[in-house]
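Project outcomes to date are best conveyed with an example. Our students and postdoctoral researchers have been running inverse folding experiments weekly, and each run begins with a structure described purely in C-alpha coordinates. The record below, which covers 200 residues, was selected by the lab manager from last quarter's runs and is presented without edits.
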Protein backbone atom coordinates (compact mmCIF):
# COMPACT_ATOMS: atom_id res chain seq x y z
CA UNK A 1 0.00 0.00 0.00
CA UNK A 2 1.27 3.45 -0.92
CA UNK A 3 2.44 5.75 1.84
CA UNK A 4 2.38 8.82 -0.39
CA UNK A 5 1.05 12.02 1.15
CA UNK A 6 -0.55 14.88 -0.80
CA UNK A 7 -0.37 18.23 0.98
CA UNK A 8 -1.02 21.95 0.74
CA UNK A 9 -0.58 24.91 3.07
CA UNK A 10 -2.30 28.23 3.64
CA UNK A 11 -0.60 31.21 5.25
CA UNK A 12 -1.53 33.96 7.67
CA UNK A 13 0.10 36.65 5.54
CA UNK A 14 1.35 37.33 2.01
CA UNK A 15 4.56 38.20 0.16
CA UNK A 16 3.07 41.66 -0.33
CA UNK A 17 3.19 42.10 3.44
CA UNK A 18 6.62 40.58 4.13
CA UNK A 19 8.51 41.17 0.87
CA UNK A 20 8.66 39.25 -2.39
CA UNK A 21 10.31 35.86 -2.01
CA UNK A 22 10.66 36.24 1.77
CA UNK A 23 9.50 32.76 2.79
CA UNK A 24 10.94 33.31 6.28
CA UNK A 25 8.40 36.07 6.84
CA UNK A 26 5.39 33.89 6.08
CA UNK A 27 3.47 32.08 8.81
CA UNK A 28 1.34 28.97 8.42
CA UNK A 29 -2.36 29.14 9.14
CA UNK A 30 -3.32 25.63 8.01
CA UNK A 31 -1.83 22.50 6.47
CA UNK A 32 -3.99 19.77 4.94
CA UNK A 33 -2.71 16.30 4.09
CA UNK A 34 -4.24 13.39 2.26
CA UNK A 35 -2.75 10.00 3.13
CA UNK A 36 -3.05 7.15 0.64
CA UNK A 37 -2.28 4.67 3.41
CA UNK A 38 -5.56 5.26 5.23
CA UNK A 39 -7.49 7.32 2.61
CA UNK A 40 -7.97 10.27 4.99
CA UNK A 41 -7.65 14.05 4.96
CA UNK A 42 -6.17 15.70 8.06
CA UNK A 43 -5.90 19.36 9.03
CA UNK A 44 -3.16 20.97 11.11
CA UNK A 45 -3.25 24.55 12.39
CA UNK A 46 -0.03 26.38 13.22
CA UNK A 47 -0.09 25.27 16.86
CA UNK A 48 -0.59 21.64 15.76
CA UNK A 49 2.42 21.36 13.44
CA UNK A 50 4.22 19.04 15.86
CA UNK A 51 1.59 16.46 14.87
CA UNK A 52 2.29 17.03 11.17
CA UNK A 53 5.99 16.14 11.23
CA UNK A 54 5.51 12.38 11.79
CA UNK A 55 3.08 12.29 8.86
CA UNK A 56 5.68 13.85 6.57
CA UNK A 57 8.61 11.90 7.99
CA UNK A 58 6.88 8.55 7.38
CA UNK A 59 5.73 9.45 3.86
CA UNK A 60 7.02 7.38 0.99
CA UNK A 61 6.77 10.53 -1.12
CA UNK A 62 5.24 13.99 -0.73
CA UNK A 63 3.05 15.31 -3.54
CA UNK A 64 2.09 18.94 -4.00
CA UNK A 65 1.64 21.74 -6.52
CA UNK A 66 4.36 24.40 -6.44
CA UNK A 67 5.19 22.76 -3.14
CA UNK A 68 8.98 22.67 -3.46
CA UNK A 69 9.15 26.41 -3.97
CA UNK A 70 6.39 27.60 -1.64
CA UNK A 71 4.95 25.08 0.83
CA UNK A 72 8.20 23.42 1.88
CA UNK A 73 10.21 26.65 2.39
CA UNK A 74 7.41 28.06 4.57
CA UNK A 75 7.08 24.84 6.60
CA UNK A 76 10.86 24.75 7.01
CA UNK A 77 10.54 27.83 9.25
CA UNK A 78 8.97 25.55 11.86
CA UNK A 79 10.92 22.31 11.40
CA UNK A 80 14.24 21.41 13.03
CA UNK A 81 15.31 18.99 10.29
CA UNK A 82 15.56 19.34 6.52
CA UNK A 83 12.25 18.79 4.72
CA UNK A 84 14.01 18.78 1.35
CA UNK A 85 15.43 15.34 2.19
CA UNK A 86 11.96 13.78 2.06
CA UNK A 87 11.20 12.31 -1.41
CA UNK A 88 8.96 14.79 -3.17
CA UNK A 89 6.99 15.09 -6.41
CA UNK A 90 6.07 18.68 -7.23
CA UNK A 91 3.48 18.40 -10.01
CA UNK A 92 4.11 21.96 -11.20
CA UNK A 93 7.84 21.29 -11.51
CA UNK A 94 7.15 18.22 -13.66
CA UNK A 95 4.63 20.11 -15.81
CA UNK A 96 7.06 23.02 -16.29
CA UNK A 97 9.83 20.61 -17.26
CA UNK A 98 7.61 19.17 -20.00
CA UNK A 99 5.71 22.26 -21.16
CA UNK A 100 8.24 25.03 -20.52
CA UNK A 101 5.83 27.17 -18.49
CA UNK A 102 3.99 27.09 -15.16
CA UNK A 103 0.19 26.79 -15.50
CA UNK A 104 -2.06 27.51 -12.53
CA UNK A 105 -3.58 24.53 -10.74
CA UNK A 106 -7.03 25.93 -11.44
CA UNK A 107 -6.40 25.95 -15.21
CA UNK A 108 -5.04 22.40 -15.15
CA UNK A 109 -7.99 21.22 -13.05
CA UNK A 110 -10.55 22.79 -15.38
CA UNK A 111 -8.94 21.35 -18.50
CA UNK A 112 -8.06 17.92 -17.10
CA UNK A 113 -10.80 17.19 -14.57
CA UNK A 114 -13.58 19.60 -15.54
CA UNK A 115 -13.50 21.00 -12.02
CA UNK A 116 -12.04 24.09 -10.38
CA UNK A 117 -10.68 25.47 -7.14
CA UNK A 118 -13.15 26.89 -4.63
CA UNK A 119 -11.13 30.07 -4.01
CA UNK A 120 -7.59 31.40 -4.02
CA UNK A 121 -4.79 31.87 -1.53
CA UNK A 122 -5.35 35.59 -0.94
CA UNK A 123 -8.92 34.84 0.12
CA UNK A 124 -7.59 32.27 2.60
CA UNK A 125 -5.41 34.97 4.20
CA UNK A 126 -8.44 37.20 4.64
CA UNK A 127 -10.45 34.31 6.08
CA UNK A 128 -7.66 33.72 8.60
CA UNK A 129 -7.69 37.35 9.66
CA UNK A 130 -11.45 37.10 10.20
CA UNK A 131 -11.19 33.78 12.02
CA UNK A 132 -13.26 31.95 9.38
CA UNK A 133 -11.62 28.57 9.83
CA UNK A 134 -14.42 26.62 8.17
CA UNK A 135 -13.76 28.46 4.90
CA UNK A 136 -9.99 27.96 5.12
CA UNK A 137 -10.37 24.25 5.82
CA UNK A 138 -12.86 23.69 2.99
CA UNK A 139 -10.67 25.59 0.52
CA UNK A 140 -7.45 23.82 1.49
CA UNK A 141 -9.06 20.37 1.51
CA UNK A 142 -10.47 21.10 -1.96
CA UNK A 143 -6.98 22.07 -3.16
CA UNK A 144 -5.48 18.86 -1.82
CA UNK A 145 -8.27 16.78 -3.39
CA UNK A 146 -7.74 18.48 -6.77
CA UNK A 147 -3.96 18.03 -6.54
CA UNK A 148 -4.48 14.34 -5.75
CA UNK A 149 -6.87 13.91 -8.68
CA UNK A 150 -4.55 15.70 -11.14
CA UNK A 151 -1.74 13.44 -9.91
CA UNK A 152 -3.89 10.33 -10.39
CA UNK A 153 -4.96 11.41 -13.88
CA UNK A 154 -1.39 12.18 -14.94
CA UNK A 155 -0.06 8.95 -13.46
CA UNK A 156 -2.68 6.89 -15.30
CA UNK A 157 -2.80 8.73 -18.64
CA UNK A 158 0.78 10.05 -18.80
CA UNK A 159 -0.57 13.50 -19.61
CA UNK A 160 -2.63 16.36 -18.26
CA UNK A 161 -4.32 19.25 -20.10
CA UNK A 162 -4.32 23.04 -20.04
CA UNK A 163 -6.32 25.67 -22.00
CA UNK A 164 -4.33 27.59 -24.61
CA UNK A 165 -5.04 31.23 -25.51
CA UNK A 166 -7.89 30.19 -27.80
CA UNK A 167 -9.49 28.06 -25.10
CA UNK A 168 -8.53 24.79 -26.78
CA UNK A 169 -7.45 22.02 -24.41
CA UNK A 170 -3.83 21.09 -25.06
CA UNK A 171 -2.13 17.96 -23.68
CA UNK A 172 1.09 18.09 -21.67
CA UNK A 173 2.98 14.78 -21.31
CA UNK A 174 3.98 14.09 -17.70
CA UNK A 175 5.80 11.45 -15.68
CA UNK A 176 4.10 11.18 -12.29
CA UNK A 177 4.80 7.47 -11.77
CA UNK A 178 5.37 6.08 -8.28
CA UNK A 179 9.01 5.52 -7.43
CA UNK A 180 9.47 3.05 -4.61
CA UNK A 181 11.94 4.62 -2.19
CA UNK A 182 14.36 2.24 -0.48
CA UNK A 183 17.45 2.99 1.59
CA UNK A 184 19.63 5.64 -0.06
CA UNK A 185 22.12 8.33 0.74
CA UNK A 186 19.46 11.01 1.03
CA UNK A 187 18.26 10.06 4.48
CA UNK A 188 15.71 7.30 3.98
CA UNK A 189 16.12 4.49 6.50
CA UNK A 190 15.96 0.98 5.07
CA UNK A 191 12.96 -1.07 6.09
CA UNK A 192 11.36 1.61 8.23
CA UNK A 193 10.16 4.14 5.68
CA UNK A 194 11.32 6.82 8.11
CA UNK A 195 12.89 9.89 6.52
CA UNK A 196 15.83 10.90 8.69
CA UNK A 197 15.89 14.66 8.26
CA UNK A 198 17.31 15.88 11.57
CA UNK A 199 20.92 17.13 11.58
CA UNK A 200 22.72 14.52 13.71
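After processing, the design step wrote out the following sequence:
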Amino acid sequence: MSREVVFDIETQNTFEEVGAGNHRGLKVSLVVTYSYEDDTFRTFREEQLKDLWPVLEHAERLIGYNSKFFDVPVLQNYYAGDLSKIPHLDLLEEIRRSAGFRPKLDDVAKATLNTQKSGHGLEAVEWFKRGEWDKIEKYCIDDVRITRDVYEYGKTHKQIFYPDLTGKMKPIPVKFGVERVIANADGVAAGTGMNLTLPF
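Helices lie at 15-18, 49-57, 67-76, 91-99, 105-113, 121-129, 133-157. The chain has seven helices and seven strands. The training component of this project remains on track.
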